[in-house]
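Lab meeting notes turned into a lecture example. A postdoc, R.K., suggested we walk through two folding results consecutively so the class can see how the record format repeats. The first protein's sequence and structure tokens come next.
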Amino acid sequence: MSVSSSIRRLCIAVALSAGVALAPACKGGADTPTSPTASGPTVSQPPAPAPTTPAPTTPPPTTPAPRGAVTITVNPNPVPHSGTPITDAAGCRDVRYTWFYDQVFQETGGSTVTFTNRIDLFDDRETNNLATNVVVPANGTTSIRSRWCSSNRAAHSAQTRWTGTDAAGNPISVLGPRVVLSAAP
């Protein structure tokens, strides 16, 4: 069997399976194969990419709100007897033994603290339990002037417990230092 008869049989087989439209392409001489008819370039589509699931996004780390932290110092301590009358408080109006000092609040936690209650102790006994509004700014200081009177010239002690919340609503309670009120001369 010659090449040309093989091509002819191939052309007949292709023509039978593809239809009459391809038959003219198989015409040719016995010794010359015919080239296929140009039907335009064959475009091969790349496979569609697989659907991608977006990578889970991690939210940026949240910085917890700073917690208020307050220390209290007393100036001076021990406190010398003053003797200066306290005339605007009925219980001290006619009492001759008096003491004055500052309570200095230092906030170090980075959160504003508001004290809403103070409990005063005098000689280890609760003498006042009062609502108050003392604000200590974040990383700042606040001073409160404190004063005491007694009808007894002896040395005494004083101390204050402060309670409230920081800017994030966290409760805070601070017991100030024990203050020595020196005896009157």
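The second example is placed directly after the first for contrast:
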Amino acid sequence: MGTLAGGVAHDFNNILGAVLGYGELAQSSVPPNSAVRRYVDSMMSAGQRAKSLVERILAFSRSAETIAGLGYEAVGFSSAVEALEAFRSDPQRFDAVLSDETMPGMTGSQLTEKIIAIRPDIPVILMSGYAGPTLVARARAAGAREVLSKPLAARDIARALASVIAPVAVGYKN
């Protein structure tokens, strides 16, 4: 997932560079108080928000490398359905599941329910950019042990993994 996210962010960043570059040229060639300038300024503002999104995606992609750097084998999937199929085929292969709430095919909470039905002891961590009380309650009801709010630093993921895997290693079952 991290490699895919990094590739998408890189490609999007290339497109964004052209949008922002030509936007700056447009800003300098239209009168400051004109309607066209307001449109270009709005486009540039949206471009800056997109730039921030790219930075968050890149931070996520680097967090997968951090997971591998901590000795975990990170396995990524492009959809929740693919992740569920892999889990069904070999549930004991996984020590924990880390998923985003918003995924193609089904939500992270739905994925959690299905994974917990297969293997009730597996620790599941959900991430979301919108981890409000409703999502936290839904995720916990589905069986998630942790719910993390994005954007995330690598240390946030490392702490969450350590907190859900360590208790299992000494016999704790949630």
